[in-house]
Amino acid sequence: MPRSINSVASRNKRKKILKLAKGYYGRRKNVWTVAKNAVEKGLLYAYRDRKINKRNFRSLWILRINAAARIHGLNYASLINKLKLKNIVINRKVLADIAMNDPIVFEEIVKKVKS
Q1: Which CATH superfamily is domain 8-114 in?
Q2: By C-alpha distance, which of 87, 79, 85 is closest to 106?
Q3: pTM for the predicted model, two decimal places
Q4: Are 88 and 109 in contact (CB under 8 A)?
Q5: Which of 1, 28, 50, 84 is the most buried (most CB within 10 A)?
C-alpha cells in the first residue's frame, strides 16, 4: 500500500509560515526551518510585548500627569489622592491627555482639587 502524505496541507502550512516571515533578512525569509524558528520567536515576542506595551503607556501617562501637576504645586501622588477624596473619577489616560493638550482645563481640575 502506498504511503499517504497530505502534501496539500503540508504545503499550505509551510506557505503560511513563509508568508509571515516576509521581510526578514537572509535565510530567515525563505528557508523553511530557519523561517519557522524566526516566526515562532517573533510571535512570542509579539505576545509578550502586548502586555509590556500597556505598562509602558501607563508609566508615560503617570510621568505626564506628574510633570503637569508639579507646575501647579502638587505632585502626582497627592493629586491622585485628592482626586479620589473629592470623588472625581477620571482615568490616567484621559488626565494625561488633558494635561498635555489642554492645560487650562487641567488647571481647573487642580483648582477644584485644592479647594
Answers
A1: Ribosomal protein L20, C-terminal domain (1.10.1900.20)
A2: 79
A3: 0.77
A4: yes
A5: 28
Distance in Å from the first CA to the final CA of the chain: 88
Could you report the per-residue pLDDT of 76-112, keeping only the tens digit for each? 999 999 999 999 999 999 999 999 999 999 999 999 9
Q: 80 to each of 37, 71, 109, how far by Cα in Å?
A: 46, 15, 11
Number of residues that this document lists for the chain: 115
Residue pair 76/66 in contact (Cβ under 8 Å)? The answer is: yes
Question: In angstroms, what CA-CA distances link 102 with 4, 50, 64, 95, 107?
Answer: 68, 29, 12, 10, 9
Q: And the C-alpha cell for 49?
A: 510585548
